[in-house]
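Per reviewer request, we include the raw input and output of the structure prediction for the construct analysed in the revised manuscript.
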Amino acid sequence: MDAIVLAAGLGTRLRPHTLTVPKPLLPVQGRPILDWIIGALPPEVTRLIVVTNYLAVQVDAYLAKQTHIRDWTTVRQEVPRGTGDALRVCKPHVKCEQLLVLNGDDLYGAADLAKLASKPAGILAHPVAEPRNFGVLFPKNDDRTILDRLVEKPDMDGPALANIGAYVFPRSVFDIELTLSKRNEYEITEAIDKLAQLAPFHVVEATFWLPIGTVEAWNAAQTADLSKAKR
């Protein structure tokens, strides 16, 4: 299995800390965020692709020193046009028939990623109290294990299952034609919706998730229990 980490963002909500360090390399308890992510990848992952743009040279330097995965490469997203575009630029570099795709600024549970990787196609989800701030999953069945559709920031009250930016796709995801969203971006969620109409798209509820999108969240992560983020 190939793993793709989407790490091209500017990290504007983490400034001034990201003015000289890319967000995926900000330290959490002495380790870069990206190091936590790579360290939690399941054993099935044999190759790593990291999508970069902002301060990409620093990401390359980190990857050259890390010891988690020997077979790695970086792909530059020249013009950031959304997560769907970031995935699309990886197509020439993917070697396997299945790929695990992760946001580059969230910490995930190692056991959760292993369970997700066991599915032919799927998404990691976490309960949230305020669904208006998230992309929300609507399952097809009562036990909430198969996805029907994704709705971005729905006008509804919680609790709900939120998309937390971890997916497993078949290689055929690259055959899906994406359209520009209202944000003038190509969204990975469009690909998920279309795949879910073709075959069962599994929902895996996460036992651990730590998003690091703001200075407050980054500071809180320094004292959080990260035992589940270790393989």
